[in-house]
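User: Transporter. Structure?
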Amino acid sequence: MTHFPLLRSLSKHLVLLLAGVSIFTAAWSQDKPAPLLLKDALQHALQNKSTAVKARLDEENSQNIIDEAKSRALPQVNANGNLTYNPILQLSAVPGELAGQPGTTLLIPFGQKWNSGASVSLSQTVLDKSVFTALKAAKTTKEYYKILSGLTDEQVIEQVATQYYQVLVQRQQLVVVDSNLASTTRLISIIEGQYKNGLAKKIDLDRTKVSLSNIQAQRQRLINAVQLQENMLKFYMGMPIETAIHIPATQLDSIKPQLASIDPVPDIRKLTDYKALKKKEELLELQKEANKAANYPSLSLSGNYGYQGLGQSFPIGKSGGNGANWFDYATVGLSLKVPLFNGFATRSKVRQSNIEIQKAREDLKDAELSLNLTYQNAKTQLQNSIITLHNQEENVALAEEVYSNSMNNYHQGLAPLTDLLDAESSLTSAQNNYSAALLDYRIAEIQLIKAQGNLKTLLN
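Assistant: Predicted structure:
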């Protein structure tokens, strides 16, 4: 029995320990954000960036525009009611002959003190070319906003993808600096030991320390640059700036330079930029038709039914006596409007529309040239960036070999420290140039994918 309190105490401490481990694990997992892959960044941006959200709202609102256009072709029904009190009735002059008083003029009040009524009216467009043109224009507007939404998505994808790889390259450069910092620190330790044993000069130690200080300053600048680039990436993603993100460095290893992506020649007329301008031209054509519709006759049907009460007292109650006199009425009409002359206003509007259509066609011609230029330049840039990337890769391998040989020669006393520091500086420059070439290649590839109209493939 004496073991039970001890057992309970151990159990209690075990439970507290497990709870503490769980809390620590949860806190650690919260502090360390999940790896942010490119496709994750793009999907987040498309869902949260304000420009993409607004484009989807415009696309959604286009259905409301269609519904508004449809309303003009549907019956219009209105209900009306009124109540009027006339404290002083207007007098009308009537010849006395009507009342057997020739040669006199009688002033007789007409109307009732109280007048009330309620009615329902209906109107229906039977024939109006402008109504049906507006309906076609509304449907085309919906298609236009859908294209614009796709164009906005492509712009967001381009911005986020470009910024994403800029962050990657900055981080890669930071890795290079950290490696140089570690190697220089080890070198200082070696030289300090040699200096204490009289095998190295103080100037060699000082030079190495200066080199270390320069590397530390460069590292701090890169840390600041990485932070700024990450903040810009969050902005393009529509993410709160204070949110922590983690971009895995292994993403750089996925960059495999290849010329295969150059082969698909784009059909300019299928690109989103061109389709948006083409749809704008269609809208201008419909605007022209709407202006011309002002010259066409229009026909509409109308109907009205009402109930009215008149009396000397408040119009509530039975007809006759002191009550109100109630009666109903109804009308049905057909209205035809034939435009004859409006001072050439319609002709002027049609001519303005023709000018706008011509300008839109010129925009299409210019867009076709611009999109072809973009594709050709992107293809050339990609080809050149691949050549540069291969050259820089070979340059890094050579610089690493030179640095290794310089390190061995320095340890064996066959080369001065300046040769080693120069080799280290050359290696750092080669590595940074390789990182820059990686970024140039990736940006060129993104531009080529954009020119081919395949930016959304980056989401896969």
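The chain is about 65% helix and 15% strand. The chain has one domain: 36-72+129-296+343-459.
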